[in-house]
Amino acid sequence: MRQLAAVVLLASLVLAGCATSPGPAEPVPEASPEAGGPADAPAPSDEGDEALAVFRSALEGQSPSAPDALVAAVEAAGFERSAIERTREVDSLGAPVTFVQIAVRDGDGCLVGSVGEGEATAVRASALGSGRCLVGEIVTVD
Q1: I need a surface site. Which of 22, 45, 104, 133 has the fewest CB within 10 A?
Q2: Beta strands in the chain (DSSP E)
Q3: Which sign does the torsion angle of CA 108, 115, 48, 36 carry?
């Protein structure tokens, strides 16, 4: 019985400590470009990663509405067709998507890109546990 009382007392003290406020929090200063904050963070770079640079270059100028041309551009850049994955160009309701994701298996990892109206993006990422690069429903590239 003593142990139960001790546990209840300890739990009450812990909860009482959680219920009290230590006072107003000090404001966190906002980062400014002059202070070298996040606005000055360098953009991702392909420097030193030739495969990523070639992949990103293949994505430039492509459109999500022409996924076959996108796959052809990645293949023409030297990537194995059987290593390419892409998402669908229409959503589950049949409407055109804003972006198409495309990926290439590269060794133990993946090159993952996004193509939309505007600048294409590409990053190097780890492969999923399944061995694939993209999550969800993908289009099989033969």
Answers
A1: 22
A2: 84-87, 99-106, 109-116, 121-126, 138-140
A3: negative
